[in-house]
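Propose amino acids for all 333 sites.
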């Protein structure tokens, strides 16, 4: 079965017959889950197992956004409520807090079969910017953000879960929510290289990254990063030096003004390796599939390298002891 270079959502807590046929025929590289797909642990595990059986890959990536704070798809009563990045960053033992928190998130995810978490957020927090990033950021200092983002990535990988660093090359200055409209960043390239791009450059060895639907006028005044050959080539692959698997943010977000098929094609032409589509609408899913190439060549090599990073599985963890330490750290904030 030929794997195609996209990641798809699904509509509900079980796969419909139409979705099963679609996944069997289109064979997306991965599946991404949202709250609409989640009821309880047994149901989530069954949904994931069903997807993997259909696509015929036991290690087929299953992704989720489980950051903590405002962005976590799994929560009480079945799963813990994790703190936002900003809160962990203020702890006196911030690096350990972030790493251990990520390790505990990985423990929850892997028990369900989820092997990719769209964390860490390496965007900087800027006063006056739109709150779409806000407390999801580890702070405003590029070096500190890089340190904590790496701690999160390492915690996830120690737990057998792949991290996705986002939103490359930086969403923090955006004055608009890219889910709803297209943000434009107007500062100079020198300033971007001094600040926004720094954490991503420090994390360029991580296995996966997600693009930002943001225009950087100093680099490409016409196209957002996701569909800009200039941003992908000169900044993400060039200045930042990221050579891992590059996935788009959701191609159905309003920041991209084209149709779903057009957005998907443009992302691949820009140099992205994978297209991400999240909303579970079948007509859009088909359009993404039709406009996504087979996963081969350099993209396939990057995908294999990414999965190889977690092939050995999770390192041992005394979960009760880890939770005790983590709770004590968080309580001091």
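Proposal:
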């Amino acid at each position: 079965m030929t794997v195609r270079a996209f990641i798809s959502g699904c509509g509900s807590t079980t796969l419909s017959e139409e979705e099963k046929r679609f996944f069997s025929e289109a064979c997306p590289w991965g599946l991404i889950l949202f709250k609409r797909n989640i009821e309880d642990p047994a149901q989530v595990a069954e949904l994931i197992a069903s997807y993997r059986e259909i696509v015929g890959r036991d290690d087929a990536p299953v992704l989720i956004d489980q950051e903590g704070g405002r962005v976590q798809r799994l929560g009480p009563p079945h799963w813990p409520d994790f703190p936002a990045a900003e809160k962990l960053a203020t702890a006196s033992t911030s690096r350990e807090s972030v790493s251990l928190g990520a390790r505990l998130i990985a423990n929850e995810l892997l028990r369900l079969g989820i092997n990719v978490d769209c964390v860490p957020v390496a965007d900087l927090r800027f006063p006056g910017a739109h709150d779409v990033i806000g407390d999801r950021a580890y702070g405003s200092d590029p070096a500190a953000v890089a340190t904590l983002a790496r701690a999160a990535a390492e915690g996830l990988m120690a737990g057998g879960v792949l991290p996705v660093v986002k939103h490359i090359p930086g969403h923090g200055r955006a004055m608009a929510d890219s889910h709803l409209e297209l943000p434009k960043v107007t500062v100079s390239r020198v300033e971007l290289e001094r600040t926004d791009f720094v954490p991503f450059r420090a994390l360029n060895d991580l296995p996966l990254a997600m693009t930002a639907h943001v225009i950087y006028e100093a680099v490409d005044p016409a196209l957002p990063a996701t569909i800009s050959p200039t941003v992908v080539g000169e900044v993400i692959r060039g200045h930042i030096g990221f050579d891992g698997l590059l996935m788009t943010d959701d191609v159905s977000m309003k920041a991209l003004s084209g149709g779903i098929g057009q957005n998907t094609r443009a992302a691949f032409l820009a140099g992205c390796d994978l297209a991400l589509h999240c909303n579970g609408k079948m007509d859009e899913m088909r359009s993404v599939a039709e406009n996504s190439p087979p996963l081969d060549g350099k993209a396939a090599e990057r995908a294999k390298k990414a999965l190889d990073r977690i092939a050995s599985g999770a390192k041992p963890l005394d979960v009760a002891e880890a939770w005790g330490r983590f709770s004590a750290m968080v309580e001091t904030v």
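The CA atoms of residues 281 and 329 lie 42 Å apart. The chain has one domain: 4-331.
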